[in-house]
Amino acid sequence: MGKEVKTVGVKEGLGAGIIGLGLIIIFLPSAVQKIADMGIGETYPMLSGTVMVFGIFVVIAGLSIIFMKLSD
């Protein structure tokens, strides 16, 4: 009876949304595999590396929002 009920707030929802966006960005290069098959050159590895690094930064941003101490 003395337990405090914890609920998910706006901060956690925002963090989860940013993590989801980061995961979409990380898996985006596998969805555009056709670029490599077009014979353009080194476009696909450059796109893949850039998007993976960007996705990692977005996931880190989401985690930092979730674990950040905010006063409500």
Number of DSSP helices?
3
> Which outline best applies?
elongated
Q: What is the helical fraction, as a range of percent?
A: over 70%
Largest sheet: none
Would you spell out the secondary-structure blueprint of this structure?
Layout: H1 10-31, H2 34-37, H3 43-67
Helix pairs in contact: 1-3
Structural description of this entry:
The chain is mainly alpha-helical. It has one domain (10-67). It has 3 helices and no strands. α1 packs antiparallel against α3. The protein is elongated. The chain starts with 9 loop residues before the first helix and ends in a 5-residue tail after the last helix. The mean pLDDT is 76.
Can you describe this structure in just a few lines?
The chain has three helices and no strands. It is mainly alpha-helical and 72 residues long.
